[in-house]
Specification:
Layout (H helix, E strand, L loop, with lengths): L3 E5 L7 E6 L4 E7 L2 E6 L14 E4 L2 E5 L6 E3 L16 E2 L1 E4 L2 E4 L14
Antiparallel strand pairs: 1-10, 2-3, 3-4, 4-8, 5-6, 6-7, 9-10
Organism: Geodermatophilus ruber
Keywords: 2Fe-2S, Dioxygenase, Iron, Iron-sulfur, Metal-binding, Oxidoreductase
InterPro entries: Rieske_2Fe-2S, Rieske_2Fe-2S_sf
């Protein structure tokens, strides 16, 4: 794993999201009820930034809502909770050390790992 510092914990609103632009991918660092999540900052349906949407509980899951068409994505898995989105968005491992937030974008946790031969 290759965790890299992406922001200060105090930069992420509670509840809310912060867009972070990295070399390979833009991510949304999200805070909800004291937990920190990271996912790719693009809706799988309309390709707009998820970090601009509302962070809330929806159908019992912590979610972020796409502001354009209203699809909500589970912050834990990246899975869409409601239409029109049908494809998940990639989620990434997060580690908080003191006031620093670290994310490993080399790992995409939204899809099951392939079995090694």
């Amino acid at each position: 794993m290759a965790f890299e510092r992406v922001c200060a914990l105090s930069d992420v609103p509670e509840p809310g999201a912060l867009r972070v632009e990295l070399d390979d991918v833009d991510i949304a660092v999200v805070r909800f009820e004291g937990e920190i999540y990271a996912l790719e900052d693009v809706c799988s349906h309309a390709e707009v930034p998820l970090s601009e949407g509302e962070v809330e509980e929806f159908k019992g899951a912590p979610t972020i809502e796409c502001w354009l068409h209203g699809s909500c994505f589970d912050l834990r898995s990246g899975a869409p909770i409601n239409p029109p989105a049908t494809e998940p968005v990639p989620v990434y491992p997060v580690r908080v050390e003191g006031e620093d937030v670290y994310v490993d974008v080399s790992v995409d946790d939204s899809l099951p790992a392939a079995a090694s031969n």
